[in-house]
Amino acid sequence: MDPTDYPHFMEMALREAQLAFEENEVPVGAVVVFENRVIGRGHNRTIALADATAHAEIIALSAAYGHFEDWRLEECYLFSTLEPCVMCSGAAVLSRIKTIVYGASDPKFGGCGSIFTIPTEIKLNHRCEIVRGVCEDEIAALMRLFFQQVRQNKTKVN
Amino acid sequence: MDPTDYPHFMEMALREAQLAFEENEVPVGAVVVFENRVIGRGHNRTIALADATAHAEIIALSAAYGHFEDWRLEECYLFSTLEPCVMCSGAAVLSRIKTIVYGASDPKFGGCGSIFTIPTEIKLNHRCEIVRGVCEDEIAALMRLFFQQVRQNKTKVN
């Protein structure tokens, strides 16, 4: 994929994040792309599903497995608005994702550089390329808006 | 939980691993225990479900969320026959698991000491205690038997 196409797909992930926002979930969205086509999408649904693993990336990967009827997503790109957490970074490696593209960093949970750097770890049997900072400002603005509302409403989100 | 109870629950996880073995999946089993009662169980189903995230631990956690209708498993123990991988270790932390108890170490994917040590990482917002080596010999024997059969059949499992 040409890097000039990254913002286009990140905008699609951002639309998913906006759906999460509307559902009062932490606004994170993700898409899986194969041959420049979206084959999986998802947004964070941890509260709605009462499931700590229902992150945007896991839901998008799940749809992509369904597309291929295979757990190997070898030539696929995972776009996520937020840096994938440790769990999602591990899931991307297990799924043989080619490249992880994300927007904003997550200093609290990030598994792609912030706390651990899982996808490029040489000891694992597969490695994913990491691309950072795509559409970062727009994504960071949405996250800020969400957490401002949470503070105003005193809603506990995690 | 009294540590003398660990082998009892690990035997239940091992029975799940044997189910995976019979289904030609890498034989890993897991149970989630709350107040000395199993509230979730699972075995590895990555091939059957064509889903790289369908690890024993994730399936057992999923059942436990259903039990409480909540993603917080704060007083729960996660027993797994094999050291949880990076993804599953991350999922345990996200789920606020109290203690991870495992049998055999996994030098290829392990996230509880072998490659990363995720559950005790001070920068994460929750930490799980880790207990290692429960029923290790019995579990290691089952794993060896499985991989011997794989080599004989030349089946590709991952």
Main sheet strand line-up of chain A: 2-1-3-4-5
**What is the mean pLDDT of chain A?**
96
Q: How many helices of chain A does DSSP assign?
A: 5
Distance between the termini of chain A: 35 Å
Shape of chain A: globular
Secondary-structure-derived class of chain A: alpha/beta
Largest interface: A-B, 41 and 41 residues
Indicate the radius of gyration of chain A in whole angstroms.
Answer: 15 Å
Oligomer: homodimer
User: What's the β-strand tally of chain A?
Assistant: 5
- Residue ranges of chain A: pLDDT <50 for 5 or more in a row? none
The proportion of strand residues of chain A reads 15-25%
Largest sheet: number of strands, sense, barrel closure of chain A: 5 strands, mixed
Order of helices and strands of chain A: HEEHHEHEEH
Secondary structure: helix percent of chain A: 25-40%
Write up this protein:
The structure is a homodimer of 158-residue chains. With 158 residues, chain A is of the alpha/beta class. The first copy, chain A, is 39% helix and 18% strand. Chain A contains five helices and five strands. A five-stranded mixed β-sheet of chain A has the order 2-1-3-4-5. In chain A, strand 3, helix 4 and strand 4 form a beta-alpha-beta unit. The longest helix of chain A is centred in the last third of the chain and has 18 residues. The radius of gyration of chain A is 15 Å and the shape is globular. The mean pLDDT of chain A is 96. At the A-B interface, helix 2, helix 3 and helix 4 of A face helix 2 and helix 3 of B.
